[in-house]
């Protein structure tokens, strides 16, 4: 079985790597309304979208398309009596995005509202050299725990003792 969507997602010059953020299916509402057909799943076809694809298209290569078209997340959930929608093979290309329409999913779902906001007062505070940092913050790194003459001394660097 050859999954056509994987061919679309394969990265150039990298045989084993796929770009899973690439959009591979566009629901074409008008084409679906005009060309849709119904297929009733028989007992022998339960959990077997490859057989259903073979019966509809003559090849198991359209499993990924049938999953996308019918919003099937888990092919094992296909049961007897379920209605599977399909379109003629000649219409399938209308459901694949054109190269110019193939947007990166990461760009599509990214959200500027989730960017970290910078507090202008905090930035001003950091830039002012006249104000000192709180006493719990030191300017140099130190180890507050020391061993001297068999004794453990805690806080030597902070309190200067």
Outline the secondary-structure elements.
Layout: H1 4-9, H2 29-35, E1 37-40, H3 49-57, H4 63-69, E2 83-86, H5 105-109, H6 120-127, E3 145-148, E4 151-154, H7 156-159
Antiparallel strand pairs: 1-2, 3-4
Description of the structure:
- The chain is α+β, with helices and mostly antiparallel strands and 161 residues long.
- It has a domain at 4-112.
- The protein contains seven helices and four strands; from the N terminus they run ααβααβααββα.
- The strands form two sheets. It has a two-stranded antiparallel ribbon with strand order 1-2. Strands 3-4 form a two-stranded antiparallel ribbon.
- β3 and β4 form a beta hairpin.
- The longest helix has 9 residues, at 49-57.
- The radius of gyration is 30 Å and the shape is elongated.
- The model has no long low-confidence stretch (mean pLDDT 77).
Characteristic key phrases:
161 residues, alpha+beta, two-stranded antiparallel ribbon, 7 helices, 29% helix
Q: pLDDT average, as an integer?
A: 77
Q: Give the termini distance in whole angstroms.
A: 75 Å
The proportion of residues forming helix, as a percent range, comes to: 25-40%
- Return residue spans where pLDDT drops below 50 for at least 5 consecutive residues: none
Q: What topology, given as strand order, has the largest sheet?
A: 1-2
Main sheet attributes: strand count, strand direction, barrel closure: 2 strands, antiparallel
Strand content: 5-15%
The helix/strand series, from N terminus to C terminus, equals HHEHHEHHEEH
Work out the number of β strands: 4
| Helix/sheet category | alpha+beta
Rg over alpha carbons: 30 Å
**How many helices does DSSP assign?**
7
The outline comes out as elongated
């Amino acid at each position: 079985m050859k999954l056509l969507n994987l061919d679309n997602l394969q990265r150039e010059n990298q045989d084993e790597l796929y770009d899973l953020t690439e959009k591979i299916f566009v629901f074409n509402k008008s084409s679906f309304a005009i060309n849709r057909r119904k297929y009733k799943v028989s007992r022998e076809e339960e959990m077997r979208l490859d057989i259903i694809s073979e019966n509809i298209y003559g090849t198991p290569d359209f499993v990924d398309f049938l999953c996308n078209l019918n919003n099937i997340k888990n092919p094992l959930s296909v049961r007897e009596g379920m209605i599977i929608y399909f379109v003629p093979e000649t219409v399938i290309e209308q459901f694949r995005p054109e190269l110019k329409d193939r947007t990166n999913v990461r760009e599509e779902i990214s959200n500027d509202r989730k960017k970290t906001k910078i507090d202008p007062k905090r930035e001003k505070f950091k830039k002012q050299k006249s104000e000192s940092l709180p006493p719990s913050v030191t300017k140099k790194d130190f180890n507050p725990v020391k061993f001297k003459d068999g004794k453990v001394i805690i806080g030597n660097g902070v309190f200067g003792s």
